Amino acid sequence: MQGVMVFLVLCANDGQEGLQKRQRDFLEMRHFKRCLGH
Fold first, then answer.
1. What value does the mean pLDDT take over residues 7-25?
2. What distances in angstroms separate CA 36 from CA 7, 21, 22, 32, one per listed residue?
3. Quick one: three-class SS letters along the chain?
4. Domain coordinates in residue numbering, the chain
5. pLDDT at 27 over 70
6. Would the CA dihedral through 31, 36, 37, 38 be positive or negative?
7. How many angstroms separate the CA atoms of 13 and 33, rounded?
8. How many whole angstroms separate alpha carbon 26 and alpha carbon 10?
9. Using alpha carbons only, what angle is made at residue 35 by residues 38 and 16, rounded to the nearest 5 degrees?
10. Distance between CA atoms of residues 35 and 12, nearest Å
11. What does the pLDDT read at residue 13?
12. What is the pLDDT of residue 7?
């Protein structure tokens, strides 16, 4: 859950275009974790 907080802070710092990129990174990370079976 702490990772989500860090994610939100980073998004706030990045601004709008950074948000989309980081959102994609976040979704890929979640997909990767799901592939690992977490």
1. 72
2. 21, 23, 21, 6
3. CHHHHHHHHHHHHHCHHHHHHHHHHHHHHHHHHHHHCC
4. 2-36
5. yes
6. negative
7. 25
8. 11
9. 90
10. 28
11. 64
12. 67
